[in-house]
From TrEMBL:
Any one of the GO BP annotations: maltodextrin transmembrane transport
Stated name of the protein: Sugar ABC transporter substrate-binding protein
Superkingdom of source: Bacteria
GO CC entries: ATP-binding cassette (ABC) transporter complex, substrate-binding subunit-containing
Keyword Signal included in the entry's annotation: yes
Matches recorded under InterPro entries: SBP
Gene Ontology terms, MF aspect: maltose binding
Gene3D superfamilies the UniProt entry points to: Periplasmic binding protein-like II
Signal peptide (from-to): 1-24
Family: Belongs to the bacterial solute-binding protein 1 family.
Keywords, ordered alphabetically: Signal, Transport
Species this chain originates from: Vagococcus lutrae
Length: 433
């Protein structure tokens, strides 16, 4: 199953690597203007997907119930595994001024899109911003203005096989809680127990996924240890990314490979088929387990924390709605965005697509209805969610961080890690200028 929020390519650096359109593409993109009472929206998934099915119902409801006679028209443009398809069409539309009124965008792209003048602020069109999680507001805000609003949240935890834990002698009383998560040292002890017992890696951390996952899922370890990617105003990485706190974090990551607790090349569906006792992943794996691998009795544990700070940090961020600056139907577009992000519509999206909620009110409703694993992810998100940095050059920065995670698994000592982080800090800072 494809990750819904990861797989982040370098969409818009704006430079935005604009894709040149052929004359045939331009003709197709400019074929006919929407009617005066129609508002157009592009989404990055198929109509047949879980998201698409919810969206179809939401649009039908909007068209039938809004009191101004607005009509929304959706174009479903699925992304490819590498992130193409949808982004290609968005980039091409920029060159022909044929963007829709509303589009979806991945959270980390907010700054690049807004800085490019591609988005219009939407603060004035949303009446219940206080109900959205802080992480949702943070990821959609650039230069003090809200340019996008998330329609779902995301989170990651440590999936564990209850039967394998029992077989290894790990009792329920040994398990971490949100109030008392495992430190890295305690996590390593458990991983060693499982590795020794089953003579194979204890956990699939996703090291083979060379995509946004490596930034999204591993930066919480950096933040938990008191480190960061760049300084607060996003202008420096030297002295930040290569700080001793990050060297310690990457030592923890590196040791997972050195000690054979994890592997760079995990077996496909290794956790789902009972090969590995643990897997670091998000709600998409929960959906997969519940639908396709029902023999696995699993639970979800919170992120391990730095033994220095003991601060629980977990990743957040997902897809959002934004209004294009080129739209001449901003009142209509704003009305549609507010409707699609209303409590009932976000509840339907979260339940229908097995994703975390973007609003507190939806989270409260879901906590009374969903199973324990989803409850854990929702609660962890509420108490420890940390959004990715809002940087105009984020597409370049994330690639460097991803490469750092990958390359750290090939080094053998602290000296090499120091040198690696110094080099990568210089590279990140070059992106910021």
């Amino acid at each position: 199953m494809k990750r819904k929020i990861l797989g982040f390519m370098g969409v818009v650096a704006l430079s935005l690597s604009l894709v040149a359109c052929s004359s045939a593409d331009q003709k197709a993109d400019t074929k006919k203007k929407a009617k005066d009472d129609e508002v157009t929206v592009w989404v990055q998934y198929s109509k047949e997907s879980a998201e698409g099915q919810v969206m179809t119902e939401s649009i039908k409801k909007f068209n039938e119930t809004n009191d101004k006679g607005y009509k929304a028209v959706v174009e479903y443009i699925p992304r490819s595994g590498s992130g193409g398809g949808y982004e290609d069409k968005v980039n091409a539309a920029l060159t022909t001024n044929t963007l829709p009124d509303v589009l979806t965008l991945d959270g980390p792209n907010t700054a690049a899109y807004a800085n490019a003048g591609m988005l219009a602020p939407i603060d004035d069109y949303l009446s219940e911003k206080e109900d959205f999680l802080p992480s949702i507001i943070d990821q959609g805000t650039y230069d003090g203005k809200l340019y996008a609003i998330g329609y779902s949240e995301s989170g990651v935890g440590i999936f564990y096989n209850k039967d394998m834990f029992k077989e290894a002698g790990i009792e329920e009383s040994d398990l971490p809680t949100l109030e008392k998560p495992w430190t890295w040292d305690e996590f390593n002890t458990i991983a060693k127990t499982l590795t020794d017992k089953f003579d194979q890696p204890a956990i699939d951390m996703g090291f083979d996924d060379h995509s946004e996952w490596l930034f999204y899922a591993f930066t919480p370890f950096i933040w938990s240890n008191g480190g960061d990617i760049v300084n607060e105003d996003g202008t420096k990485a030297i002295g930040v990314f290569d700080a001793k706190e990050n060297v310690e974090t990457f030592q923890f990551i590196q040791d997972l490979i050195k000690n054979k607790y994890s592997t760079i090349s995990p077996s496909e569906a290794g956790f789902q088929t009972g090969k590995y006792a643990m897997k670091m992943s998000g709600s998409w794996t929960m959906q997969e387990l519940d639908q396709e691998y029902q023999d696995i009795d699993y639970g979800i544990l919170p992120y391990p924390v730095s033994p220095k700070t003991k601060e629980l940090v977990s990743p957040t961020g997902s897809w959002q709605y934004g209004m294009t600056a080129s739209s001449d139907k901003k009142e209509m577009a704003g009305a549609l965005i507010e409707f699609l992000t209303s409590e009932d519509e976000l509840y339907n999206m979260s339940m229908g697509n097995t994703v975390l909620p973007a609003r507190t009110s939806v989270a409260n409703r879901m906590l009374e209805e969903v199973a324990e694993p989803m409850q854990m992810l929702i609660k962890q998100n509420q108490v420890s969610g940390h959004s990715r940095p809002v940087l105009v050059e984020y597409p370049k920065v994330t690639r460097t961080v991803q490469e750092t995670v990958t390359e750290s698994t090939y080094f053998d000592d602290n000296k090499d890690l120091n040198k690696l982080l110094e080099t990568k800090a210089q590279e990140i800072e070059s992106h910021l200028k």
